[in-house]
Amino acid sequence: MFESAEIGHVIDKSTYKAEEAALREALLEVQYELKQRGEFPLLLLIHGMDGAGRGETLNQINEWLDPRLIHTAAFDAPNDDARERPWMWRYWRELPAKGRIGMFFGSYYSDALFDRVDSKTNRDAFDKQLFDILRFERMLANDGVLVLKFWLHLAEDKQKKRLKLLEKDPATAWRVTEADWKHHGQYSRIKNNAEHMMRLTNTAYAPWLVVDGEDANYRSLTVGRALLQALQQRLALDHVWQARSDVAAITPPADNKLLLESLQLDQAFSKDDYKQQLEALQGRLNGLTRHPKFAEHSLVLAFEGNDAAGKGGAIRRITQALDARRYRIVPVAAPTEEERAMPWLWRFWRHVPGKGKVTIFDRTWYGRVLVERVEGFAETADWMRGYYEINDFEHQLRDNNAIVLKFWLAISADEQLSRFKSREETGFKRFKITEEDWRNRDKWDDYKVAVCDMIDRTSTSAVPWTLVAANNKYYARIKILTTICEALEAKLGA
Amino acid sequence: MFESAEIGHVIDKSTYKAEEAALREALLEVQYELKQRGEFPLLLLIHGMDGAGRGETLNQINEWLDPRLIHTAAFDAPNDDARERPWMWRYWRELPAKGRIGMFFGSYYSDALFDRVDSKTNRDAFDKQLFDILRFERMLANDGVLVLKFWLHLAEDKQKKRLKLLEKDPATAWRVTEADWKHHGQYSRIKNNAEHMMRLTNTAYAPWLVVDGEDANYRSLTVGRALLQALQQRLALDHVWQARSDVAAITPPADNKLLLESLQLDQAFSKDDYKQQLEALQGRLNGLTRHPKFAEHSLVLAFEGNDAAGKGGAIRRITQALDARRYRIVPVAAPTEEERAMPWLWRFWRHVPGKGKVTIFDRTWYGRVLVERVEGFAETADWMRGYYEINDFEHQLRDNNAIVLKFWLAISADEQLSRFKSREETGFKRFKITEEDWRNRDKWDDYKVAVCDMIDRTSTSAVPWTLVAANNKYYARIKILTTICEALEAKLGA
Questions:
Q1: What does the domain layout of chain A look like in residue ranges?
Q2: Confidence grade of residue A143 (pLDDT, cut at 50, 70, 90)
Q3: Which stretch of A160-169, A331-340, B322-331, B427-436 has the lowest confidence by average pLDDT?
Q4: Chain A residues touching B352 at Cβ < 8 A
Q5: Which of the four CATH numbers 3.40.50.300, 3.30.160.20, 1.10.3730.10, 3.10.290.10 does domain B261-492 have?
Q6: Pfam families, alphabetically (chains A, B) (predicted)?
Q7: Tens of pLDDT, residues A366-389
Q8: Which residue of A has its CA nearest to B240?
Q9: Does the fold of domain B261-492 match that of domain B3-257?
Q10: ipTM above 0.90, yes or no
Q11: According to the model, what pLDDT value does residue A114 have?
């Protein structure tokens, strides 16, 4: 979920300055339209890691916009008045009126998250609180409130650096509190629980936006643009807002730097090394699937990737290591008539493996947010809810002890072209290349954006995506087998 | 929630026969249209108390409709295949395809409910499961599935009678199992948890329908009509179904017998008795609000009723017993401009009392589902979600230790007329009667239906409605004061 926010987004000063003036003017304009029309309020929740610039973002927004029309509320520990009343009371009190902007620094999410991080609640109680929040936000949305939730992110090592830097300078040392260091010590606990929280509360009508908080220019521009876009989109609606069908669009990174582009696609790996390691890995994998503890688990492998990225070859290297009675390959193409008559996830649910079994999906449920999105087979509202539904599906598998691993096999456009050509030239491979493959290639950039969104919204620490550089197929196969073996070993304690 | 299902609905044989033939034909007709159009499936969940006729209902539907197009699935304890997979897997497997009807005898709701009843789960884990269900049904609804959930009800004493009757006859004795008697012993635990479950999962797109199960004719007609109405309504839509905005209408009882009509409005009570008891009750109430334990609680009194039913007089008899520093009366009229700019419940949240305090609402948040419904001030989808939002609000108060009591003061149309006239004749009471009161009177029947729906959908054992027969104001005031004192005593252990 935080992948794209950790690849180091930067916007240089001159680019920033050039855009800031226009952005500011546009923001002021929509703010006045919001005020003048007085039809709905905007509620902004600012959350994130310590040191990721939450306070600065709040100040920036107040500086850019007309602060007289912004109501800022910071929530720390509840006071007596609040403690005597239901949990949500103090948030109700600070809600913005129609035409206004409310900005919450911390919110009910902080209560839920830190009660969990500090073990004041167990996982069920945490989920119950998230359920409370979901109902609250659904009610706000139904009453017309536009809700935007920002998570400003900062990787663990960068957080440490930032806190040390601030401490060193006498002018900023006061900014670093004991709580900051305490939270730094809890970093992975905060991250994992925040991820769970955001997964369950990321709705179309009140979406989470994860922003890389390291570079101030990037952070400000991203937040400002998202704000502008959300307000413009809502103000431009020619019908009454409906929480179900009107969804927020996804904003691309302000510096146009995509996660996939940070992957080094060419990796050196010789055929000899490959042969040697392959045998060892296959033996290791075979042993792991025979491990007595594996009988309490199942393994779900999901393969996606560019056309001709080598999914089939990689899958064969896995099945060679498996007992034929234990595994099943499910090739996913267009849904059958029977499948089209059912809710869309049904065709994947039917292949959920039992204990001790392995199911390998060659293409998967991610078609919903890839091909169906890019080709327009599904409406925006439908593929948008797909992220939520997919997360829900995978976490149900995982809560049932399944080990779920997802691989994206990435090749470059050039590599794909040469593979396409060689397929056309090689008789027995000719069936592998179709008109559709060439058509998909034309939409290379659209797919790239869809893949990055997919990874950001569905990679969680419990059910992660593994990005596989696949220009070199030997490297890719070894990487995949190693990932599977390591995940099994970690789970089985083997 | 079960109020209207416990007032003894009966439909005689000849009425039943007369209607059954037409209903059956109409049902077959919509079933074929459903099949022919093949646009969406219908999923029926049949739940309820033991002995309330769940099996009979299932058979009845299979008899009325074309059973070849109905897929019936009964869910008992999960088998090995199911136990190895996520909880929801076995329900996914039995989902009906587009154009078909799926009927579940027991479902994921039974799993959640009985795990809680048998204390296998605690309250948080129960809520988490309900949250899982809510997401599942939202997904179904978004994918077009029409979901109807029936709860066939039977009061505790009637359940006992039914089980004994079945046992006595050798021909039916086999129907009564040990599990039935076990559930009978858990009756109130099942009822309370079912109520909680239905409250949290009663959505506009997948509503619960509570049906009095005692009389077979009434039960069958009610279920059949609800089915017919839901299918007709959906098939008649001239746009693609949207889970957010298209809602199921509320079906009136098949015998047109309303809860309010079961109330005996005239009650004998002399002024002398009143004076005597009033003083004692006021003293008792005063003492209770000074009880040391009351400092951990608060008291929220909600008054609704017919115009001129005597709310003001009743409230005065309460406040006479209270320390002025402890209570506050909130008269609720049309929302102010400030209030209209906020989500609708905001104007009630702002008056939530702190610990040791009493807030008396003279008219309440129930205006949303009464006047706003009847006068068309709110759209159907909006007042429908009001039930859910009101329940949520009140249960947040209650979870925060508030004692919430709701009173409906009911008078007859004749009594109201004579009070209106006497108000017009008495100088100092003249301000109490307006044109609007006369207009409301014209909509007497609409209000009656709205009041009954309101009570059915918002009276829970934790936050109950008290229906007060108020033709005799002395009786009404004593009843109200007694109810308050008893609720306080129960809560404070005083």
A1: 3-257, 261-492
A2: confident
A3: B427-436
A4: 85-86, 89
A5: 3.40.50.300
A6: PPK2
A7: 999 999 999 998 888 788 888 888
A8: A245
A9: yes
A10: no
A11: 95
B357 → chain A, closest CA residue:
A84
Distance from C-alpha of B468 to C-alpha of A104, rounded to nearest angstrom: 44
Among A137-146, A231-240, B217-226, the least confident range: A231-240
Provide the residue type at B267 as one letter.
Q
Six token digits for residue B238: 């001239």
Strand partners, B403: B299
The predicted structure's pLDDT at residue B240: 64
CA atoms of A90 and A108, how far apart (whole Å): 9
CB < 8 Å & 24+ apart, contacts of B194-200: B194/B47, B194/B113, B194/B151, B195/B1, B195/B2, B195/B460, B195/B461, B196/B126, B196/B460, B197/B109, B197/B112, B197/B113, B197/B126, B197/B130, B198/B1, B198/B151, B199/B1, B199/B388, B199/B391, B199/B395, B199/B460, B200/B127, B200/B130, B200/B134
Residues of B in contact with A125 (CB under 8 A): 124
pLDDT (0 to 100) of residue A142: 84
pLDDT of B147 reads 94
B120: nearest Cα among A393, A200, A124: A124
Residues B391/B356, Cβ–Cβ less than 8 Å: no
Tokens of A24: 């500011």
User: Which residue type is seen at A340?
Assistant: R
Tell me the pLDDT tens digit for each residue of A391-443.
889 988 998 899 999 999 999 999 999 999 888 887 677 777 778 888 888 89
Interface test with A, best of B36, B37, B80, B92 (most A CBs within 10 A): B92
pLDDT of residue B83: 87
Is A268 at the interface with chain B, CB within 8 A? no
Contacts of B95 in chain A (CB under 8 A): 342-343, 346
CATH class for the region spanning B3-257:
alpha beta
Q: Which are the contacts of B396, defined by CB distance < 8 A and separation ≥ 6?
A: A86, A87, A88, A132
- In whole angstroms, give the CA distance from residue A404 to residue A352: 11
Contact: A396, B86; criterion CB under 8 Å: yes
Give the per-residue pLDDT at B166: 87
What is the Cα–Cα distance from A404 to A397, expressed in whole angstroms? Answer: 8
Interface contact A297, partner B, CB < 8 A: no
> What is the total residue count of chain A?
494
Q: If you search the block for the tokens 């680019």, which residue do you land on?
A: A15
**pLDDT per position as a tens digit, A461-476:** 889 999 999 999 999 9
Regions of chain B with pLDDT less than 50: none
As a three-state string, the secondary structure of B375-403 is CCCCCHHHHHHHHHHHHHHHHHHHHCCEE
Chain B CB within 8 Å of residue A399 CB: yes
- For residue A283, the model assigns a pLDDT of 94
Asked if B266 has any chain A CB less than 8 Å from its own CB, the reply is: no
Chain B residues with beta carbon closer than 8 angstroms to that of A244: 242-245
The overall average pLDDT reported for chain A is 90
Write the Ramachandran bin of A376: left for phi over 0, alpha for psi from -120 to 50, otherwise beta.
left
